């Protein structure tokens, strides 16, 4: 784990789940070595001895958990029962491991796998990354945060295939428009505006299709032109302004950068952790007969 | 069962990306010059049923997918939306929100219960075991027999509060005013005896307000009136705004638009007022069927045969079959008519409903549209046999191909923000589509004439009339009939338009309701005419099922018309809405058949005319 990430709640969160206690050691090894890239020397902690010690911390924790579920403190008898049950579970658990019962059990396999995946990700989900980490990530992925291309333009709809098409009158309409006629009073009726202010490329694609955007991007600036074909028919276009700023600002995208950093770093670390574990194995796959 | 939430104990510490002040203005009528596309109904792994059916994506992936990012689906497939959406409501079931997730994770608060422990193990077992666990849990929910730990308010509240907070924080961090809006919401899942009375709750506010409450669920009460009381309390307490949207009347067995209240008593004016106040819209179309109308209710409607097959067999879980006399309480056109009749009888119209469409997908992926349908839940993500699944109970059968690809909501607003979108929903300036993104305008007034059809029709529409969702004030100039502007443009990558229709409903002097569908504008008018019975020449069909293609050589890119009601009677209350029909195009099972090289099931519907429904405009005589 990089020193740039603060980790507030990891340990507390995991301790809340008793059945992961046994995993704690393995987990620490996984997080420490696995992600540092060296797990080859680590082996699972064997449960060799037959000595069980219940610490006062463990008893307190059993009592707290009971209280959470029942909304009152347990009595002394009840605590006694909790401890006895805990010992019973521990004995069965160790004997089951000794007998290798965990190995062929689908449920155990799946649960252990999901715990391992969880360990790789839990920390990051709560992490508050340093500004410097985010800025570095932003610089590396700058292209993603470039401001959207925005177009301000007017249009007159000349109709489309299957409906009325007045593109034959295009020259006459162009004349009127160049003389200052109001575009909203000309052309075939349409449920779309005659004037767009700072419309994004994706908004234009949704309304006019990719053809429409392509035509607008190459149209001459500051004068009426056409007829031009789009995904919905023919138009006269008057492009007033195209903003295509190549400057991306970190401050404008801070939240988005953090979201993206988290989602992608998570996937990356999960994969890296897995690959590091995998690299300690040699794998042979029999050919299908 | 009553759960008393201890709200005050949930001090929320949410990192709230406050909307910039520039976007916080109230909407001015007439400013709504842009159409924004979104999905108002989507489930993620935070919904108990979704995770049981295999959903592994949460709200974050849902937002990422909707705004256009590539994500890995629950079944490990690459998934990317064909065109980004402008807004999304992640609306997980309030009933034990997050409890399925915690069940899967083995939360110790649950593992003490043997049944929950068993379900947990089954969820981790083979797919068959996981599916069986899902069936058992849903059945226990529907029959109100959930294990005690799940119903224990203390346990439930802890889990729900933490998942709810996490969801709100995620939604805040993905909300980008002006670019991509995450409206906060959830689903209230009232299902008495398997009859669907579900509502989507949508807030205008951010997490600072919404974080002060926990979602009111049907575990607290199945009676929607209790939900309205909760919504009212929310507004009083926080100064926020909220609305509820019923969906799937088609699965309610007559209850959704019943003439009675939840207890079966005849509706009162007070009930009607509150219902109209909290439920201004309805989700008319989604994956589990289209609820506009039914052949039994609208036998003279030539296009009544859309999206009801299979769904009209019974209620939500097929625990009870449909009887014909239930249909009038199930479908929206009938509800609009009932609303007029009730207004005449009790003085208030409870069903003054605007129309929206949504998906209701349970895999966190908003994927309406026949070519891009990514499934209803993890089990129906793209694959060769998903159209051939069979759900059978008590002789009632639903097939996989009967799922629709899901609808979208189009909102006319001045900017893409929570406030502007919500305000447009409140004033019903919205329309539903069955997944296509055709553009539709509809204005009503008293003096529109053919000369008004030029260029940008919105200027004229707002200046001299009301938009979709509005009320026609009585004509004070003369006794003439109302006039309407209809204007539609095809989806730039979709099928051409066949026709625009006006659906009118009205009540006569006796209080009986009637309906009629008028063909108003159509493609190729030189060759297509109405016959002696008023039936228009069909538009034709260019679908090639062997390749799953169609040609836009028929139909029109654009249709517009000024229409005057030829049968107007100023004494009769009425509603008018537009139904826009596209030319026939392949349905998703047809695309699947070609993509996966499989033979479609016998009887599967492989092509259809996709459509849009405007919110109605209402006319009310002077009293």
Short description:
The complex is a heterodimer of chains A (about 290) and B (about 625). With about 290 residues, chain A is of the alpha+beta class.
Characteristic terms for this protein:
heterodimer; A: alpha+beta; Chitinase A, domain 3; 4-stranded antiparallel β-sheet; two-stranded antiparallel sheet; 13% strand; B: 623 residues; alpha+beta; 2 domains; globular; disordered N terminus
Distance between the termini of chain B: 45 Å
Low-confidence stretches of chain B: 1-27
Secondary structure: number of strands of chain B: 26
Number of domains of chain B: 2
Q: Give the distance, in angstroms, between the N- and C-terminal Cα atoms of chain A.
A: 44 Å
Greatest interface (CB-CB under 8 A), with counts per chain: A-B, 53 and 57 residues
H-E string of chain A: EHHHHHEHEHEHEEH
- Overall geometry of chain B: globular
**Total strand segments of chain A:** 6
Biggest sheet architecture of chain A? 4 strands, antiparallel
Silhouette of chain A: elongated
Strand content of chain A: 5-15%
Query: Can you give the helix content of chain B as a percent range?
Result: 10-25%
What percentage of amino acids of chain B are in beta strands? Answer: 15-25%
Rg of chain A over CA atoms, rounded to whole Å, is: 33 Å
Report the mean per-residue pLDDT of chain B as an integer.
91
Number of domains of chain A: 2
Oligomer: heterodimer
**Uncertain segments of chain A of ≥5 residues (pLDDT<50)?**
1-46
Biggest sheet statistics of chain B: 13 strands, mixed
């Amino acid at each position: 784990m990089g020193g740039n990430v603060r980790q507030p709640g990891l340990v507390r969160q995991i301790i809340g789940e008793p059945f992961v206690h046994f995993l704690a050691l393995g987990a620490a090894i996984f997080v420490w070595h696995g992600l540092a890239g060296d797990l080859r020397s680590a082996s699972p902690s064997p449960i060799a001895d037959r000595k069980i010690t219940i610490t006062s911390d463990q008893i307190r924790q059993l009592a707290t958990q009971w209280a959470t579920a029942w909304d009152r403190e347990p009595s002394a008898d009840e605590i006694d029962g909790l401890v006895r049950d805990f010992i019973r579970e521990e004995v069965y658990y160790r004997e089951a491991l000794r007998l290798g019962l965990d190995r062929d059990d689908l449920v155990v396999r799946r649960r252990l796998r999901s715990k391992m995946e969880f360990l790789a990700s839990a920390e990051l989900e709560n992490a508050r990354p340093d500004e410097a980490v985010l800025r570095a990530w932003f610089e590396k992925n700058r292209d993603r945060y470039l401001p959207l291309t925005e177009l301000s333009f007017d249009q007159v709809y000349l109709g489309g295939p299957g409906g009325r098409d007045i593109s034959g009158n295009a020259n006459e309409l162009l004349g009127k428009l160049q003389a200052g006629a109001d575009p909203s009073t000309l052309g075939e009726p349409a449920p779309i505006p005659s004037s767009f202010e700072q419309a994004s490329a994706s908004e234009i694609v949704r309304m006019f299709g990719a053809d429409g955007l392509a035509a607008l991007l190459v149209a001459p600036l500051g004068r009426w032109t056409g007829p031009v074909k789009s995904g919905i028919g023919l138009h006269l276009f008057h492009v007033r302004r195209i903003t295509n700023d190549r400057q991306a600002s970190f401050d404008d995208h801070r939240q988005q950068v953090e979201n993206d950093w988290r989602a992608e770093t998570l996937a990356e670390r999960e994969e890296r952790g897995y690959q590091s574990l995998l690299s300690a194995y040699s794998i042979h796959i029999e050919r299908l007969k | 069962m009553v759960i008393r939430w201890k709200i005050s104990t949930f001090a929320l510490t949410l990192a709230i990306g406050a909307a910039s002040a520039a976007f916080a203005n109230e909407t001015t009528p007439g400013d709504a010059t842009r159409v924004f596309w979104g999905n108002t109904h989507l489930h993620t792994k935070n919904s108990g049923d979704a995770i049981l059916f295999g959903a592994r994506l949460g709200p974050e992936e849902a937002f990422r997918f909707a705004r256009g990012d590539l994500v890995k689906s629950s079944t490990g497939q690459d998934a990317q939306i064909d065109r980004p959406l402008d807004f999304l409501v992640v609306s997980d079931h309030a009933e034990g929100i997050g409890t399925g997730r915690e069940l899967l994770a083995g939360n110790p608060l649950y593992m003490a219960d043997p049944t929950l422990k068993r379900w947990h193990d089954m969820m981790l077992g083979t797919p068959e075991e996981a599916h069986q666990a899902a069936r058992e849990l849903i059945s226990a929910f529907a029959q109100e027999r959930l294990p005690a730990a799940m119903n224990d308010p203390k346990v439930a509240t802890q889990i729900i509060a933490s998942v709810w907070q996490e969801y709100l924080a995620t939604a805040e961090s993905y909300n980008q005013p002006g670019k991509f809006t995450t409206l906060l919401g959830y689903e209230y899942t009232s299902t008495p005896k398997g009859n669907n009375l579900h509502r989507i709750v949508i807030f205008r506010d951010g997490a600072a307000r919404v974080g002060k409450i926990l979602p009111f669920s049907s575990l607290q009460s199945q009676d929607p009136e209790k939900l309205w009381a909760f919504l009212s309390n929310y507004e009083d307490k926080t100064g926020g705004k909220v609305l509820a949207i019923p969906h799937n009347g088609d699965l309610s067995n007559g209850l959704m638009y019943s003439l009675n209240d939840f207890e079966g008593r005849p509706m009162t004016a007070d009930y009607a007022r509150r219902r109209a106040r909290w439920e201004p819209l309805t989700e008319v179309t989604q994956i589990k069927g289209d609820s506009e109308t039914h052949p039994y209710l609208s036998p003279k409607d030539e296009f009544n045969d859309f999206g009801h097959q299979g769904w009209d067999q019974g209620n939500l879980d097929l625990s009870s079959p449909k009887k014909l006399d239930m249909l009038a309480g199930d479908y929206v056109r009938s509800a609009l008519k009932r609303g007029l009749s009730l207004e005449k009888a009790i003085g208030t119209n409870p069903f003054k409903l605007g129309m929206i469409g949504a998906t209701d997908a349970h895999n966190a992926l908003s994927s309406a549209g026949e070519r891009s349908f990514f499934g209803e839940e993890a089990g129906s993500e793209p694959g060769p046999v998903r159209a051939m699944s069979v759900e059978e109970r008590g002789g009632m059968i639903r097939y996989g191909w009967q799922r629709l690809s899901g609808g979208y909501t189009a909102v006319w607003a001045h900017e893409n923000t929570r406030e502007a979108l919500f305000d447009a929903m409140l004033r019903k300036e919205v329309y539903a589509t069955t997944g296509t993104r055709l553009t539709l305008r509809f204005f009503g007034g008293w003096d529109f004439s053919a000369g008004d059809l030029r260029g940008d029709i919105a200027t004229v529409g707002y200046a001299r009339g009301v938009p979709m969702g509005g009320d026609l004030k009585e004509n004070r100039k003369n006794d003439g009939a109302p006039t309407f502007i209809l204007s539609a443009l095809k989806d730039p990558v979709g099928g051409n338009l066949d026709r625009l229709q006006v659906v009118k409903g009205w009540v006569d002097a006796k209080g009986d309701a009637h309906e009629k569908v008028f063909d108003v504008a159509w493609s190729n008018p030189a060759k297509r005419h109405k016959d002696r019975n008023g039936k228009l020449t069909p538009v034709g069909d260019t679908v090639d099922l062997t390749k799953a293609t169609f040609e836009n050589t028929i139909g029109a890119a654009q249709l517009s018309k000024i229409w005057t009601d030829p049968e107007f009677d100023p004494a009769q209350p009425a509603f008018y809405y537009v139904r826009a029909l596209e030319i026939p195009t392949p349905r998703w099972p047809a695309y699947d058949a070609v993509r996966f090289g499989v033979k479609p099931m016998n009887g599967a519907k492989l092509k259809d005319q996709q459509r849009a429904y405007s919110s109605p405009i209402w006319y009310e005589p002077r009293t």
